[in-house]
Amino acid sequence: MAYLPYGESWLSGGADGRVFMQPLERTEAQLILKADRVSHVLPHPRHPSMLLITRATMDDQLILLDLRQPNGESTGLTFGFPQSNNLSQYVTPSFHPEGTLVVCGRHDDGFVNVWDIRYAGLTQGPSQSIGMLDKKVLKSAFMWDSPTMVSVGTSNSMAFFDFQLEKGLAIQ
């Protein structure tokens, strides 16, 4: 569940694969996407009409959704990484504060995948995979006031990684 300040709405998704948007001033919710089991719905930090949806699947777990589509049809760009099992509901992706990068830990190993969402080859796999922890990575997120990425895993450990892009450079 997430709050979308633009349009003052709540977003929710669940195991039935449906994602709803519920405006605060209305009683009826609008179905915006039907997908596989939905784990997380995250608003984009810079573009209020963009959402990142996480699905519990073995590949293509992430959907970047644009709510500005004509006729109310929400379409999304699907991307992800191969896993031996469905992605756990406890694994949570995150946006870079500027909104150009998405990070998501893997539960098969201690790696964190990084995608540059400006890159045209987004569906070909992560731009980078960084070994951060010994076991499953549950959450990786960028700190809002610095270029540091923090990862937390099932081994009761935490890792910090300074991640900085040159201005105007996209990860290939």
Automatic annotation (TrEMBL):
User: Out of the domains of life, which is the source?
Assistant: Eukaryota
Stored SUPFAM superfamilies:
WD40 repeat-like
PANTHER family the record matches: TRANSDUCIN FAMILY PROTEIN / WD-40 REPEAT FAMILY PROTEIN (PTHR47232), TRANSDUCIN FAMILY PROTEIN _ WD-40 REPEAT FAMILY PROTEIN (PTHR47232:SF1)
Protein name, per record: WD40-repeat-containing domain protein
Q: Which organism is it from?
A: Dimargaris cristalligena
Q: What is the lineage of its organism?
A: Eukaryota, Fungi, Fungi incertae sedis, Zoopagomycota, Kickxellomycotina
